[in-house]
Amino acid sequence: ILIIAAHPDDEVLGCGGLLSKVCDKSKISIIFIGEGSSCRYTNLNSKEINKDIKERESASKKVAKKFNLHELEFFNLPCGRFDQVPIIEINKIIESRISKFDPDIIFTHDPYDVNNDHKIIYRSTIMSTRPNSATNVSNIFTYEVPSSSECGFSQEGQFAPNFFVELTQLDLEEKFKALSYYGSEIRSFPFPRSFKGIEAYSRFRGMQAAVEYAEAFKLIRAINYVS
Questions:
Q1: 75: part of which helix (H) or strand (E)?
Q2: What is d(CA 118, CA 113) in angstroms, rounded to the nearest whole number?
Q3: pLDDT tens digits along 140-175
Q4: Which of 98, 91, 96 has the alpha carbon at shortest distance from 120?
Q5: What is the DSSP letter of 168?
Q6: Residues near 87 by Cβ (< 8 Å), separated by ≥ 6?
Q7: ∠ CA(135), CA(139), CA(63), 5° rounding?
Q8: ∠ Cα 224 225 227 (to 5°)
């Protein structure tokens, strides 16, 4: 499994329950295309930016250790400014990682997120995994990121899951613990990235799937290699 994330914390927000559920059964790698911190600063020369970036990287490494992940890679493109990077450069990052890791399944951002970095990562993932390329990925899913995926309010569309992974109470607790490593991303309820907010998401997606808790994804493409 390869998880493509725009920023450190997206992997837990979108796939934390999945990580808890399958980490002992799957080989999982994560690539972080951007650094996730500099967009919050008006002065891009601030010394605090590098400190924040290192703290995010440290948090993601704790997540990796917790879930016994295979590998993390950080590319540190400027947060909130992916549109200033030629998309071919982002494609090259993703294509190189796919070629190296040879994943069966990819999880990436959804095109209807309000975060433009997320949108660009989706576009780049689809461009990098077009069929008949050197490495064919069997399944591509998008995941939702609370406080981004639900905020489109657009007639063009919103995140519309069609694939659900049932979570246990333990999976949900493990997702909470992993999210707690990213302390700067957590606020009080009703902020979606609060612990109560994540639980509400899990219960809502669970109701859609007739289970108590679930994490939701959208299947974008599936290839059945039947001989």
A1: strand 71-77
A2: 6
A3: 999 999 988 888 787 778 899 999 999 999 999 999
A4: 91
A5: -
A6: 120, 123, 124, 127
A7: 95
A8: 130
